[in-house]
Specification:
binds S-adenosylmethionine, 8 helices, 2 domains
Length: about 240
Amino acid sequence: MKTTSTNTIGTLYVVATPIGNLGDITYRAIEILRMVDIILCEDTRTTKKLLDAYTITTKTTSYHAHSSSAKHDAIIEMLSLGKNIALVSDAGTPAISDPGAMIVRDVYDAFGNDAQVVSIPGPSAVTAALSISGLFGNEYTFVGFVPHKKGRETLFKEIAERDGISVAYESTHRMEKLLESLERFCGEKRTIVVAKELTKMYEQVVRGTAMEVRDYFAKNKDRIRGEFVVVIGPK
Ligand code: SAM
C-alpha cells in the first residue's frame, strides 16, 4: 500500500528496552515513550511493568509476529495522520529475533523516502554478550535461534568452519542439546562463552572449550535456567 498524504507523516520510533535490569533504559527512550501517541508492544502486560516503573502513561496496543494485515494498515493510517508511534518488544531491541522488521518494512513501502523511522538504540543480548565474551576479531555472525531440525546440522558445520565469531540465542530447554551439538561439531578447537541471565540477579558467564562448558552444566544442572546467549570463538 502506497500512501500519499498532505499531513506531516508521523514517526515510527524503534525503541530498545531492558533485557532484565529495568535501569538499562536510555533517557531518550523514556522521553520518546512518554511523547508518542501510542506504543506498539509485543505483549502489553510485559511492557506495562516497564511503563509503570517510569510512570509512563502512554496508550499501548499489541503488535506481534502474528498481527493481522488490518493491524498493519491501521498503523500506516495512524502515521499518515501524523501520529507518532513507538515500537517495543518484550526485551531488548525490536526486530532482533523479535517482531518489528515487518512493520518497519511496511512503513518504507507505504511512504518511500518520506518514511520517518528512527532508532532509539539500547540493550540487545547479542551485543551485551559479545562485549563480555573476551573474544576478539573484526567479524561476527549472529545466527539468531538455532533451528531445531531443518538446517541445524548444516549451520553447525558452517559455524565449525567459520573464521570469525558466531553468536546464537537459545532457550533454557534446548541448551543441553545445543552444548551437545557444539561439542560434536566444534570439539576442542573453539572457545565457547555462555552468557546467562545478563543484567539479572543470576547473571553468569561460563567459558571454555565446548567439552568444558558442557561438563560444567552437566555438573551444575540447576544453572541451566534462564536466558542464554552462546558465543563461539573463531577457529
Ligand atoms: N530482541 C532481543 C534482543 O535484542 O536481545 C532478543 C529477543 S529473543 C526473543 C530472546 C532471546 O534473547 C533469549 O532466548 C536469549 O537467547 C536472549 N536473551 C534475551 N535476554 C537475555 C538475557 N538477559 N541474558 C541472556 N540472554 C538473553
